[in-house]
Amino acid sequence: MNGIYRVSMTAVLAVLGVQAMAQAPAATPPASKPLSTSLGMVVFPAKGQTAQKQSQDEGECYAWSKGQTGVDPMAPVAAPAQPAAQPAQTAPAADGSRLRGAARGAAAGAVIGEVASDDAGKGAAIGATAGVLAGGRQSRKNQQQAAQQATQQQQQAAQQQQAASQQQMDLFKKGFAACLEPKGYTVK
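Request: output the structure for the sequence above.
Response:
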């Protein structure tokens, strides 16, 4: 009984010690990041303001700039819905390229077959086969061009969205700086 008691007490003390170490504050708490630094700006207290006063002024100017510009850089911007990528098609699209190719090939083959061997039907069949192959090649080429064009349009839309976001951020930063400068701060 005495042995079980010792083991139990040792286990309890070990658990309490681990919990106490986990809850103990760090030797140096990490300094909170000022709003200006989060925005990628540098604000210098030109009139000797304290860190607390600077933090308060930055908070006020953040709210003011947000109200004036309608932009909140700390709020995540909802990304526009991207159209789902079209799945790779295993069968060629029904754009009529193969059918047109077969018709052109059959017509040309019939003429050539009639002239060469007095057998327009055989020539038409050979021409139609060749035309189907050529039409399929054209169909794949058209699909590839359409896919490239869609990719370019998506890239352009993403670039335009990024440019618009940057313009909004620049507008917000101008408002933020315009509020802080009269309060005695140098903003860069």
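The CA atoms of residues 64 and 176 lie 8 Å apart.
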